[in-house]
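Encode chain A's predicted structure.
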Amino acid sequence: MTEVNTPPRTGEEAPQGAQEGPRKGVPPRPGRYTRFVTARPRQSLLVALVLTALAVLAGSGVADRLGSGGWEDPAAESTYATKALEREFPDSQPNLLLLVDSGRASVDDPAVASEARDLAGRLAGEKGVTGVGSYWQSRSPALRAKDGHEALIAARITGDDNAMGRTLDRIAPHYRGTHGPVRVRVGGIVAVRHEMQTIIKEDLARAEMIALPITLVLLVMVFGSAIAALLPLGIGIVAILGTNAVLRGLTAFTDVSVFALNLTTALGLGLAIDYALFIVRRFREELSTGATPLTAVGTTLRTAGRTVLFSALTVAVSLAAMMVFPQYFLRSFAYAGIAVVLLAAAAALILLPAALVLLGHRVNSLDLRRLFRRRRAPEPAEAATATPGTAWARAAGLVMRRAPLFALGTTVLLVALGLPFLGVKFGTADDRQLPSTAESHVVQEHVREGFPGSPGGGLEVLAEGRATAAQYAAYKQRVAALPEVARVDGPLVKGDAAYFTVQPRGEAVDDPAQRLVGDLRSLHTPFDAKVTGTAAVLVDTKHAIGRRLPWAAAFIAVVTLLLVFLLTGSVLIPVQAVVLNALSLTAMFGAVVWVFQDGHLSGALGFTSSGSIETTLPVLMFCVAFGLSMDYGVFLLSRIKEEYDRTGDHDAAVRHGLQRTGGLITAAAVILAVVMVAIGTSRVTNTKMLGLGIALAVLMDAMVVRSLLVPAIMRLTGRATWWAPAPLRRFHERFGVSEGDDRRPA
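Encoded structure for chain A:
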């Protein structure tokens, strides 16, 4: 953006971000915004403390109000059929299973049968439970294990996720354990989801206990000052607590996934630390030049503050793209992500300047690194005046001298790391998300491996509209003749509705089962037939994501191109940013398939591979990781643009940008990776995949793409990097922004 040295008229003050016309030896006066956030710093921080306390109260118990589902498209055929079956035929949709183990005896033993019937009768009398059935009542072979020592009691718990969880907590202790000659375990979909919700809450608390102290140590190592290190941590805590309150409020209007809490913690700490790192470092640089604390804050907000605001917008845009998808699992991450990004940026741009004005030079106090040094440590002010990042400048020079080699080699490496993703198989989240010792996982594993026909894995066909018995029989025969069908049960008729149960050959969600869904939906029938079941939900979910994915990608690309253009004024740099950011994610996607789908390292990481990737996870990981990559990209590009505007030397600007931000970006990436790895210690596989995958993406972006690929590509494109046609140049001169310090000469 072109700078004009025009001093403000008498009695007026230059607007924030405009050139203030400094006189020689006289620092510019703080702008309006700086005066606003620093006018009453103590009162501002007190108000923030009160609001944070209110957020703690408002957000308390948020995890208990969040759902553990949300992978289905609410407008899909399978969702409609599932709800209709729940309403008209509740017995057809059992979500609670009692696995009755008779030990060495047969399940047909009179004593075992008597005890099992008593358990089923008691369960039928429980409030909130309906549709109780059992092997001993129906004698269905599908409810009896192949070895004859286990059988099932099935039922349905009614209500929403929270109501079902409360009912399960109330009744499960009375059925779990030994009852006479039998031992009972509790499973089913409702038990899987409830146990998943409980484990996520426990794991999140543990992740915070792991991440916070390690993060504090790393911040002390980066800043040297314990006081400076506490500031980013405080900003992160404010952002997390505020987002919890926002999510608690949203639960009154819409469904929110419990998995969103993990993103809240990760981004709350990670982005708050990124933004505070950037601002505090620039503030300390200004102090080291002799500026007063108020002047230093003003310069920091005009420079680093703009970049933080721009970075927050780019991350929020990437996360907002998940709003286009119908699944509330993905939308929940948009709610949480946008809230935590905006709160982190607001805290960094409002509360942090107030704290810095109050601290002044005391921001450099308590240099704990001295404890580990034998020689005299330089004073923080001395360290700030030393030329930082000389190693990064040398590395940038080396990369730019061998630009074709580094550009080609890095690109080949990233593409190779992403090749396993070509073999991705999409599936649904099930009990294998839980640790192998979880009770509901054990029950589902016994059912999957020991019972004929995989109970619960079949397809249901809802038939609506008046039909005759002959028409139902003819339809059943046509379905049974399909090559992927193992067995057809039904129909069960109620008024003008009926339903059939179709058992596919093989696994419940493998390719033949998914083809069977299409075959069933293509049959011409005298009634309106709707297909649901695990495979049908997967087919509909893949269709919904595939239909909306181009719109989400286009939204991210277009808005990112516009934002980066406003920052740089270049046509080529925004395109480079989008392409290189996407390329930086290849290693993450390749690792997700190689590790979590194919099962490599499953023993070391403690999870059970289902042989597929939950369909919504790649979308979520792309949006989050792309946003974080843009976060670091904005930091680097803004400093390069500032130097290029000052000198007009393209190569020197690239070296200077990497010199000034290379260490900062790497430190921020390492700290964020620590937070994500802490999240990745979760015992729930999806959360583990999310944490470890994004940690890998962040490190690859900071240490490979920003350090090697970006300077190499910018060296190859040369001064053409900054080209823009005349109309766009004029547009940028009018509306564009930059990190450039307004005190520099025109």
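The CA atoms of residues 250 and 256 lie 7 Å apart.
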